[in-house]
Design goal:
about 130 residues; alpha+beta; two-stranded antiparallel ribbon; 3 helices; about 35% helix
Length: about 130
């Protein structure tokens, strides 16, 4: 997915550069016909627009809140059963104990805010 975004940005940047260069050439031809102005023409042609318009900064990975709509989840349910102590047929005492049972049950979870981790990424602002 990142590669496709890079390709899109490259194509868009190339197209914008072509349009700017075409516009500058058209502007030079019209200004040359109207009145010679070499200082204005050279500033348009030699100016590098990428340094002034694309500002990229690294955003560190962080946790952010995201709304999660209501949904069904299969959750593990824990059941405990107490077995009382007893004497067996030989007269030996067996202590009482808990028996643990785990089952799964579908539970509806209403909409809620949840923390999600956002990986570090480059954030480029185009002015």
């Amino acid at each position: 997915m990142t590669a496709s975004m890079r390709v899109r940005r490259l194509v868009a940047g190339t197209a914008a550069t072509g349009l700017l260069a075409g516009g500058a050439a058209l502007g030079m031809s019209t200004t040359a016909n109207a009145a010679p102005a070499p200082s204005a023409v050279t500033s348009v042609v030699t100016g590098d627009h990428h340094d002034h318009h694309d500002k990229c900064e690294w955003k560190k990975g962080h946790s952010e809140n995201k709304w999660v709509k209501g949904h069904w989840e299969k959750k593990q349910v824990h059941h405990k059963t107490w077995h009382k102590g007893h004497h067996d047929k030989h007269g030996t005492w067996h202590q009482g104990s808990w028996e643990h049972h785990y089952t799964y049950k579908w539970i509806y979870v209403p909409g809620h805010w949840d923390h999600h981790w956002v990986k570090g990424h480059w954030d480029c602002k185009h002015h």
